[in-house]
Amino acid sequence: MDLSFILNELGENREDYFNAISPPIIQTSNFRIRKVDELRGLFEDEYSGYLYSRGLNPTVDILRQKLAALDGAEDALAFNSGAAAIFASVLANVQAGDHIVSVEKPYTWARRMFDNILPRFHVKTTYVDGTDVDNFADAILPNTRLIYLESPNSWNYALQDLAAVAELAKEHDIVTICDNSYCSPVYQRPIELGIDMSLQSATKYISGHSDTVAGVLSGSSAMMKKIFDSEYNNIGSGIQPFNAWLLLRGLRTLPLRLERSSRSTLDVVNYLKDHPKVEKVLFPFDVTFPQYELARRQMSGACGLLSFYVHAGSRQEIVRFCESLQHILMAVSWGGYESLIIPGCASLSNEEFNANNPDHRIIRLYVGLEEPEYLIRDLEKGFGAM
Ligand SMILES: *Cc1c(COP(=O)(O)O)cnc(C)c1O
Questions:
Q1: Same domain, yes or no, for 246 and 329?
Q2: Count of domains in the chain?
Q3: Exposed, middle or buried, 28 (CB in 10 Å: 0-12/13-18/19+)?
Q4: How confident is residue 159, by pLDDT bands cut at 50, 70 and 90?
């Protein structure tokens, strides 16, 4: 399916709504049903039609069709956050006594679910270094039900060989989930590589304007229905119509924004690599990246997120760098217009800082849509203040 068709036409039946070019926001909580038997049908299977907007909603459905097509999946669900997509997809596939193998250092709220919530229901998680497929094979137990992946990781960009892990999981009848927030489905399609479910924080690239929190989960029709009938409706974590509409608007410019950000990122990476204050740059599409070949094989693009280690003898130097930037904003998240920065040392006190530990000197940068020269001038200013 052509990308342009997905973004501009798929799911949009304009004749149903006055031929409006922009899709409608069906801002309603419930739907009128004319026949008792129709109502009975919806009570039996809420996935079959419009009853109540915690379940299905027409604006959300336009979005879901596009998201599924982008992922090359049969079906997709849209959530009110990426964290909700993570929670529902995992919870739907485990029960007491089950075991999960997760890639090490997954997204914070995935890790907190594995560490704090699931153990209360006797579900245990083993973390493995995902850069070697054998580590997954070694961690699989007879009760392993789920393998949880995030490729690339959103701080150090460690990758997993998605096709190889998918094959291993299939041999053991294990469900696989991949957090694809870094690439978005424009640059990586885990389902086409054999992964069962792909998820992403739509807060990042799909929204694209730093104005919505949302999440996407895609996979087989049977799996999406299973999750809709249970966790999706029970947790009440579905996206609201207005937010779905914001994502529809964001989707129209998604490829263009990714292209711009990718180009500027290369300029910024090249600038940083040559800077005397920078020890090393981490970016999956840079030839010096340890898993560069795998990145080229399974991703069709890398985008605005990169990290770099600065030479700094104290935490104060990094603080001065960050606080003297005028255009690049200090904030979590990414994917909007604005370039953003987070220093790893934000989770350390001055006393805890150890200059010999590179992880204390790491800085994550999101390269947004500004002119690259404008950003480089700002970084230069930051380095000057160190
Ligand atoms: C932001 C993020 C999430 C969570 O998404 P929210 O929309 O913030 O709930 C999950 N995974 C990764 C890699 C993220 O960056």
A1: no
A2: 2
A3: middle
A4: very high
